[in-house]
Amino acid sequence: LHRIYSKVNRLYYLKEVESTTDRCRISFCLSVALLFSCTVGFCVEHKFGLWFGAGGVTLFIALYDYDARTEDDLTFKKGEKFHLINNSEGDWWEVRSLSTGNTGYVPSNYVAPVNSIQAEEWYFGKMGRKDAERMLVCPSNPRGTFLIRESETTKGAYSLSIRDWDEVKGDHVKHYKIRKLDNGGYYITTRAQFETVQQLVQHYTDRAAGLCCRLVVPCHKGMPKLADLSVKTKDVWEIPRESLQLIKKLGNGQFGEVWMGTWNGTTKVAVKTLKPGTMSPEAFLEEAQIMKRLRHDKLVQLYAVVSEEPIYIVTEFMSQGSLLEFLKDGDGRILKLPQLVDMAAQIAAGMAYIERMNYIHRDLRAANILVAENLVCKIADFGLARLIEDNEYTARQGAKFPIKWTAPEAALYGKFTIKSDVWSFGILLTELVTKGRVPYPGMNNREVLEQVERGYRMPSPHGCPGSLHDLMIQCWKKDPEDRPTFEYLQSFLEDYFTATEPQYQPGENL
């Protein structure tokens, strides 16, 4: 029993338990564990809830401020500490605040174990190289802004990404691998080894020591995205209409309106309202079950629905509106090719996830991409097109159906696949480089269908590099199987200015 106590103490458990009564209960539990050869972790976990948390840790610290959305969750400030009570709810953990004594739920991605690498300002966890570059090249970041993330290629190692500048390249990002020693230490170069990543960061904060420059300031972290409105809507996400307040109309569509609103008087959301008769509530709810499970940082997160007509679709709010309006009337008008290609790469990344999940969008175009701060793009309205019951739309003709974006096999025969989405992506690329121009200018829908069937493809837009137009042509291959995958499109676009157009120079428009 003493050996088991020692083991539990090493798991940071008993020293966190202040109540004598609780200690006695745990002693009894440990005795039973010894008698029945149960593992300590199993016994305590199932007798008293998931006390250990991840890796045996029960003490956590807030990484951000958070305002409670319901009576079940806690308001807290960055730096506040908590004891973990229960983490069986997945994205929402029950905790007790050490400063207030209050108990309630907190979003699990807003906290990290005290004194862990996850609690550091500069640690960004699982993040790809391209996303690190996007964050670091934001105009407000000085040279020497840095972040550390998990290595994409080596388990247990990390990558250090630093914003740099020189006269030839201008602003750019350098990446260094932080390797792990067998004895647990870390190094970038074997000449300088450290027990912890924190010590390594401090060393290179004091001096460049072979890096492009010394580490100056951690990259700013945006607030993490929540997958649900609250712990209660995690599983029960059909919500009462009265819980929503529609505040400002953002747009009108053929099948409804888009509003900025609030849920429960606390949380800013976007609300898409559908005209009665647009789609069957039963079919919509079935599709929404799938949509709710799709989680990716390049997809607009579905939060909740009102499934009785008029149907309400509640999603995360995107401050810059649709990509189409952003390109035509917003700040997108002044963007150059590097930013436009990066936006295309983000959309391809979201579609690559949809591809991996064996899902189909069916209506991919700039009007269904939403934009947030720092040119972040996310895909909206995935899967909804299949449910529309409007006769003019389902006949795939007339003004309501997006013929100009639709692959010929889908427009003529209703064969929608991920490869017809690839065709639509090629059309979306033309929208990006022309700043929102309608595809096939001067042609009506019937002419487009006829000409495309005869082999016509849009010529290269003014100022568009030949290599990018070649990519569009690949997306518009007649045989769907000859079109590229979204995985390929993402990779091609992310590496476009290093692998394909390294000599790019800004032009008048692009």
Automatic annotation (TrEMBL):
Listed InterPro entries: Kinase-like_dom_sf, Non-receptor_tyrosine_kinases, Prot_kinase_dom, Protein_kinase_ATP_BS, Ser-Thr/Tyr_kinase_cat_dom, SH2, SH2_dom_sf, SH3-like_dom_sf
SUPFAM superfamilies named among the record's database cross-references: Protein kinase-like (PK-like), SH2 domain, SH3-domain
Reactions catalysed: L-tyrosyl-[protein] + ATP = O-phospho-L-tyrosyl-[protein] + ADP + H(+)
Domain Protein kinase: 244-497
Residue span, SH2 domain: 122-219
Residues where ATP binds: 272
One Pfam match: SH3_1
Keyword Ribonucleoprotein: no
All residue ranges annotated as the SH3 domain in the record: 55-116
Keyword terms, alphabetized: ATP-binding, Kinase, Lipoprotein, Myristate, Nucleotide-binding, Phosphoprotein, SH2 domain, SH3 domain, Transferase, Tyrosine-protein kinase
EC assignment: 2.7.10.2
SMART domains: SH2, SH3, TyrKc
GO MF, one example: ATP binding
Family: Belongs to the protein kinase superfamily. Tyr protein kinase family.
PANTHER family hit by this protein: TYROSINE-PROTEIN KINASE
Protein name as it appears in the record: Tyrosine-protein kinase
